[in-house]
Amino acid sequence: MALDFDRSIIGKVFDETIFPPITKEEILEFAAALGETNPLYSDEAAAAQGPHGGLIAPPTFVAKLRANKLTPEHMPRLGKTGFDGGRDLELSAPVRPGDVLTMVSAIHDVYEKTGRTGSMYFIIIRNEVTNQNGEKVAVVDHRMMQR
Amino acid sequence: MNTLYFEDIEEGDELPGVDLFLSKDQVRQYAKAANMYFPRFTNDEAARAEGLPGMIAPGVMSLGLLSRLISDWNPAATIQRIGTTFRSPVLPDNTIHLRGAVTQKNEADHTADCDIWMENEDGERWVVGTATVTVPTKV
Asked: Which of the residues A103, A129, A130, B91 could staple to A138 if both were Cys, CB 3.0 to 4.6 A apart?
C-alpha cells in the first residue's frame, strides 16, 4: 500500500524553540537521575580542572529538550496507535551552564515497513540544536512509529 | 576513574557491564529531571489506563543509561553518535543489565564503534543500539 499523504511537508521547518538558559542545577539533576559519576557531568570543582574547564551536560541531555510543537499541525496520521521507536543523536559542542539553546524541528522522513504483524509507519522528526554562539550542538532524530 | 587510550582498546572488548535495580522512584526522578513528568512514567494506574502493563521508563532514559555505560567504561571517551531502538517497554521494579562491546576501531579518526544494549533478567534485549566514541591517544 502506498503511503497517502502530502509529501511536501517533508523537510519543512514546523517549529523553532528557544529555551531558557541552561542552569548548573538542571545539569546536575539530570546527571544524578542517570546515576552518572563521571566528574565532567557531576562534580563542578573536578570538572573545572578537566578538558572543558567546567561542568558540561551528559551527552543525552539534548534529548530532553521539548519543542513547543512536537509535530506539525498537518502531521499524517498513518495508524491508530503511536510508539516511541528510538532516538539517534549526533553530538558536537557540549552543553554548558548558561547556554541558550535553539532547536529547529522538521519532518525528515516518512516510510513504511511491512513485517509479520502488518504495516508499520515510521516518521522521523529531525531536531537541530545550536547554541548562542551559533555552534552546532546536536542533531536529534526522533523515530516515531505508528501502527 | 581510569582513562582508556585508543591504544588500550581492542575490537571485541566488552564494556564492563552495569547491573542495576531500576526502581520506580528512579524513573520518577528521571521523568522530573527530563521534563517528562507524565502519568505513564510516574503512576501505575494511569499507565494501565493507557493500555500499558504499568508505569514505564521513558525511552530517552534508556538512552541516557546506555550513555552512562560508556561513561563508566571510559570517562575520557566522547560520544560522537549514539542511537537506540526501543524494542520493548522498560518496566521498573526490575533488575536491568547494560551491556556493550567494541565492534570496530577506526585508526583514521581515533574513534571506536560499539554495540550497546539493555537486557532484562531473562536476557531479552529491551533496548539495542550503537555508538561511536572518540578516544584520546597516548601520543
From this structure: A129
Domains assigned to chain A: 7-22+65-146 (3.10.129.10)
Cα–Cα distance for residue pair A104/A94, rounded to 1 Å: 18
pTM as predicted:
0.95
Are B29 and A143 in contact (CB < 8 Å)?
Answer: no
Q: Distance from B56 to chain A by nearest Cα, in Å?
A: 12
| CA distance linking residue B96 with residue B121, whole number of Å | 7
Q: Has residue B50 been placed in a domain?
A: no
Residue B75: its chain A contacts at CB < 8 A? Answer: 38-40
What tens digit of pLDDT does each residue of B22-52 get?
A: 999 999 999 999 999 999 999 999 999 999 9
Q: Determine whether the interchain pair B60/A87 forms a contact, defined as Cβ–Cβ distance below 8 Å.
A: yes
CB-based contact B63 A32, cutoff 8 Å: no
Domain count, chain B: 1
